[in-house]
């Protein structure tokens, strides 16, 4: 048998005093999965990019920064026993991990904002009440993002957030993380309840309502992940080997970030938004007029064309002029138009009624 390669030959090792290899695995897997999901989102919606997509793009860009910062921390010695590190290595590890926590919560918060903007885009075309609810929730998510980002950094120096000894810990660090993670779980529950409430007001079968709600309920596994982050983080602060024991909390954080980014994109998939007929002529799907830019929410008016003969009036979403065109039914049957779906080559049209 060939001799085993010397330890220095390996990219990373996993030993009782070095768990950096486990963090490498979690970091690369989470980054690959979230990136693939975002690329799929871009492929599905590249012709109809909205505020939700731009918010998710910013979150993904910040995730790239977080990934790079985490690799820098790993290169400096993250995941290793502090006894193996020089003072310079420990200082660089603490500084990199300090920055990693800031961009981590910034990316998590932006993914939440993108999820709310998607809800607003799908459900509030003609409902001012729904539009206002989504605006309030978006504001809450933005405030949470800012507060969480500041709470993990302000008033604590890098070494006090990754202490070698328990007494060196920033005094208010654990209570801050407790507040952040508790409110994090509350916001995730809110991101499931809001679309559930909006969908339940629509005139559609319960089976279809549950199908739409299930697309947003994929965020629920984030709740136990957040709790596990808090438990393992707290344990690492009281550990005799904090450099190694912090590894578990970091792995759960990477899983949380990956799942949060993916959960913000899953409802965009075509199978979840395929022509849900509300029974009143409205469809749940993407349009070029999003975020309350028309109907009740936007307070817009319709530019009418003269009617001649019998036909059905239809509002065209091609362009922003709001024209209402008349098309005559063929072969004695009323003409129906299908809601636009991701992957189609034309925007949505909605039937407005029969012209008399």
> What fraction strand?
5-15%
Query: What class would the helix/strand composition place it in?
Result: alpha+beta
Strand neighbour order, sheet with most strands: 3-5-4-6
Task: Output the number of helix runs.
Answer: 10
**What about the largest sheet?**
4 strands, mixed
What is the CATH T-level topology?
Rhopdopsin 7-helix transmembrane proteins
Shape: elongated
Task: Quickly give the CATH architecture.
Answer: Up-down Bundle
Question: What oligomeric state is this?
Answer: single chain
Mean pLDDT: 76
Quote the distance from N terminus to C terminus.
88 Å
The residue fraction in helices comes out at 55-70%
Strand/helix succession? HHHHHHHHHEEHEEEE
Q: Can you tell me the number of structural domains? A: 1
Return residue spans where pLDDT drops below 50 for at least 5 consecutive residues.
275-356
Computed Rg: 25 Å
Q: Class in CATH? A: Mainly Alpha
Count of distinct strands: 6
């Amino acid at each position: 048998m060939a001799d085993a390669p010397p330890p220095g030959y390996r990219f990373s090792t996993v030993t009782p005093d070095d768990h950096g290899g486990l963090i490498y695995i979690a970091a690369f897997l989470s980054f690959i999965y979230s990136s693939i999901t975002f690329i799929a989102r871009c492929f599905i919606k590249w012709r109809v990019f909205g505020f939700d997509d731009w918010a998710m793009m910013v979150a993904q860009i910040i995730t790239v920064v977080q990934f790079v910062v985490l690799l820098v921390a790993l290169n400096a010695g993250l995941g290793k026993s502090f006894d193996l590190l020089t003072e310079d290595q420990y200082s660089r590890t603490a500084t990199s991990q300090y920055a990693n926590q800031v961009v981590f919560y910034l990316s998590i918060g932006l993914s939440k904002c993108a999820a709310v903007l998607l809800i607003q885009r799908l459900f509030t075309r003609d409902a001012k009440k729904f539009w206002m609810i989504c605006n309030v929730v978006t504001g809450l998510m933005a405030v949470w993002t800012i507060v969480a980002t500041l709470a993990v950094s302000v008033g604590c120096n890098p070494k006090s957030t990754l202490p070698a000894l328990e007494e060196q810990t920033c005094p208010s660090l654990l209570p801050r993380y407790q507040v952040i993670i508790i409110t994090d779980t509350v916001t995730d529950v809110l991101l499931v309840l809001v679309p559930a409430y909006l969908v339940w007001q629509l005139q559609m079968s319960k089976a279809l309502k549950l199908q739409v709600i299930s697309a947003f309920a994929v965020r629920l596994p984030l709740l136990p992940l957040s709790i596990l982050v808090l438990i393992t983080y707290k344990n690492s602060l009281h550990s005799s080997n904090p450099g190694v024991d912090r590894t578990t909390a970091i792995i759960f954080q990477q899983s949380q970030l990956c799942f949060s980014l993916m959960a913000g994109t899953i409802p965009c998939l075509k199978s979840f938004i395929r022509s849900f007929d509300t029974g009143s002529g409205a469809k749940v799907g993407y349009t070029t007029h999003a975020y309350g830019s028309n109907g009740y929410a936007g307070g817009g008016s319709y530019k009418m064309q003269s009617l001649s003969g019998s036909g059905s009036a239809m509002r065209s979403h091609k362009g922003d002029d709001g024209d209402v065109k008349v098309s005559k039914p063929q072969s004695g049957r009323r003409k129906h138009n299908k809601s636009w779906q991701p992957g189609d080559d034309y925007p949505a049209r909605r039937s407005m009624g029969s012209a008399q």
